[in-house]
Write a structure and sequence with these properties.
Elements: E1 5-8, H1 13-25, E2 30-33, E3 57-60, E4 63-66, H2 68-78, H3 89-120, H4 126-146, H5 160-172, H6 176-182, H7 186-196, H8 199-203
Parallel strand pairs: 1-2
Antiparallel strand pairs: 1-3, 3-4
Helix pairs in contact: 1-2, 1-5, 3-4, 3-5, 4-6
């Protein structure tokens, strides 16, 4: 089977989600570096892959996709390897609920409002960070309430929900406020230690 191509940057949370999915499935792939924040801007050819100039984009044997959730589901279903989606309707619905919740309420607060604001700004907006931390606390409370008993978010099966949450929370933990907040949620702290211990996590970690 043809090797898929993933377009994006190693600093991107969503590129990492897609890469972890490929790694967990044991799929060889080519990562084509593409920096959406480059001074020269997005190359014109990339608009054929992603009309909204975001990352990642994906191509496999002439089939193109953008949107990380769609890429991850395609990789799980198109390639051999361990299933990363529950077999039952309720499990799949819960998985979609968790990934959707993280996209809608977790990513912006944890990554941009807290971590990027603290790390990248010479004069961080402390009110924005405080607001982001309040939202992040709610996200961690909800994840704790939704987590099934067992090793992973949905029980004993590693799923796309875990692979979605791991990179978002990893970026949040780049700052002390994120680490301090996660420490208050024992179930999520222990879950994060397990996902951070996966080979797929180590192989997709950005090297400074």
């Amino acid at each position: 089977m043809a090797k898929p191509t993933l377009y994006g940057a190693d600093y991107s949370v969503y590129v990492r989600i897609a890469r972890m999915t490929l790694e967990e499935k044991g799929v060889g792939y080519e990562l084509v570096p593409l920096d959406i924040f480059a001074a020269e801007g997005i190359p014109a050819w990339y608009l054929d892959h992603h009309p909204f100039s975001r990352i990642p984009a994906f191509e496999h044997a002439g089939f193109r996709l953008f949107e990380t959730g769609a890429i991850a589901r395609y990789v799980d279903e198109a390639f051999d390897g361990p299933a990363l989606q529950p077999a039952d309707a309720r499990g799949r619905a819960r998985m979609s609920q968790i990934t959707g919740m993280l996209d809608a309420y977790g990513y912006r607060a944890m990554v941009w409002d807290v971590a990027v604001e603290r790390l990248e700004k010479a004069a961080p907006d402390e009110a924005l960070i405080a607001s982001g931390l309040r939202q992040a606390e709610t996200v961690l409370k909800v994840l704790t309430s939704l987590k099934a008993r067992g090793t992973w978010l949905l029980g004993e099966q590693l799923t796309l929900a875990d692979l979605h949450a791991g990179p978002i929370i990893a970026y949040f933990l780049k700052v002390a406020e994120g680490r301090d907040l996660l420490a208050r949620f024992a179930d999520m702290r222990d879950w994060y230690a397990r996902i951070a211990g996966r080979p797929s996590f180590a192989r997709t970690e950005k090297v400074a």
